[in-house]
From TrEMBL:
The lineage of its organism: Eukaryota, Viridiplantae, Streptophyta, Embryophyta, Tracheophyta. Residues 217-321 form the Rhodanese domain. This is Rhodanese domain-containing protein. PROSITE patterns: RHODANESE_3. It comes from Populus trichocarpa (Western balsam poplar). Signal peptide: none annotated.
């Protein structure tokens, strides 16, 4: 997701959503404002250089000025566009690309050089098969990195997913380095034909995915959730079976050889040549990786959700989706509205939105939970990620079981949506307390 003759146009608008389109009418940039400006003036200048978008505000509503929220959708911004962004709000950016990189260590050095001085935290991994990135930062810095990356023809059309980070950085620090596997899978992925598009599943646009889901019950089709069980626990597509997996590394769909494994494998005993398999994950990379494995195992009709669930929620809203979306950063989960705040559509089976979801149960007592957000066990040496009702949080002091409540290294019970800091922070606090005593 990275004109010869000059043309200039300016027009005042008073809307809460706007799109700037190029000559072929594909969207260049979309912005949404939850507290709309009284008036906006857009100036789009097409020259031999890049199109330029400037925003000016008139008659500001000072009472709401501090409440404004900018949400950027760069998923379809061509490489020829530059955006002047007046906001310093924090965002989280996700993208990946499978492409041959001759010297990944040199590539890492180039990226480190560009990011020097920018306020970027996250995980950016590079190897011979491409790049995989999830990072946070002020939108100005975060989008500058995307623009720089798209200047490279290998990444000029890369699909970028963006979501808000309302509490600042969603990652503790920047990790930009060479990594043998862009995603962790048993046995690694360097031997997989990831650079051959024909070996990966066919990507479906969100609108096509939505159409296919409505036809699932009338066709020979399997909706395959290529995530972990705890991700399914707080949100999933209708018709998707809960994955019996706690880590993607151990995913084994389609290779069941025991009765117990077959019972939990959605692909067990299906016709590999006739069954349509609709695969989805958060951002798309796990599906791309695992689809090559399924292709090698003889599965013919493989389809993935392009851009993953985050891209779908941004374009289609929560239709056919129920619950929240688990994310691998400090936010832990996001409601569908985080990706498309103006979409008021809710799943027909859940008219009250994301509250009181019937499938979400407390890990400890099994009761229904209304807060679709995981927490870590207060026992540092356990650190289990689990869903829990507030009664059990109080009864077990933030732990996942009675045994953990007597563990020697317990962290304090966290209220609300907070998340524990790194374990060594509490070890240092414990040492300080012992010295004080």
């Amino acid at each position: 997701m990275r004109g010869s003759s000059a043309a200039c146009c300016a027009a005042p608008i008073s809307v809460s959503t706007a799109k700037i389109a190029c000559r072929n009418e594909s969207p260049l940039f979309q912005f949404k404002i939850l507290c709309p400006f009284a008036s906006l003036t857009t100036t789009s200048i097409f020259t031999t250089a890049r199109p330029f978008l400037s925003l000016s505000r008139s008659q500001p509503d000072k009472a709401r000025q501090k409440q404004k929220l900018w949400e950027f959708n760069c998923a379809t911004i061509p490489s020829s566009s530059t955006v002047a962004n007046p906001s310093n709000d924090f965002i989280v950016v996700n993208f990946y690309r499978f492409v041959f990189i001759n010297d990944p260590h040199e590539e890492v050095a180039k990226h480190l050089s560009f990011l020097k001085g920018l306020d970027i935290h996250g995980r950016i991994y590079v190897n011979e098969q491409g790049i995989n990135a999830q990072y946070s930062g002020p939108s100005k810095d975060a989008l500058a990195y995307v623009e720089w990356l798209r200047e490279d023809f290998r990444f000029s059309d890369i699909l970028v997913q963006i979501s808000p980070a309302l509490n600042g950085h969603a990652f503790p620090k920047l990790k930009l380095r060479y990594k043998p596997s862009l995603v962790q899978l048993e046995g690694g992925i360097s031997h997989l034909p990831l650079l051959d598009p024909t070996m990966r599943a066919t990507p479906l646009a969100p609108s096509e995915w939505r159409k296919r889901l409505k036809e699932v019950h009338d066709s020979n089709c399997v909706v395959l959730d290529v995530r972990n069980g705890y991700e399914w626990d707080i949100g999933h597509f209708h018709g998707a079976q809960r994955p019996d997996v706690d880590c993607f590394r151990s995913t084994s769909f389609g290779e069941s050889d025991s009765e117990e494994a077959i019972a939990s494998d959605p692909l067990a005993n299906v016709d590999k040549e006739k069954t349509n398999i609709l695969m989805y994950c958060t951002g798309g990379i796990r599906c791309d990786v695992y689809s090559t494995i399924l292709r090698q195992r003889g599965f013919q009709n493989l389809y993935t959700l392009k851009g993953g669930v985050s891209h779908y929620l941004q374009n289609e809203g929560p239709v056919e989706w129920v619950g929240n979306l688990f994310v691998f950063d400090d936010r832990l989960s996001l409601p569908p509205s985080a990706y498309n705040p103006e979409d008021t559509t809710v799943p027909s089976s859940n008219p009250q939105g994301c509250k009181n979801i019937l499938f979400a149960n407390c890990y400890i007592c099994g009761s229904q939970v209304s807060e679709l957000r995981h927490r870590n066990c207060a026992n540092i040496d356990c650190n289990l990620l689990f869903l829990c009702c507030m009664e059990c949080v109080k009864d077990l002091k933030g732990c996942c079981c009675p045994q953990c409540t007597t563990a020697p290294r317990l962290r304090p019970v966290l209220p609300g949506n907070q998340r524990y800091k790194k374990w060594y922070m509490y070890r240092e606090l414990e040492v300080q307390n012992e010295l004080a005593v």
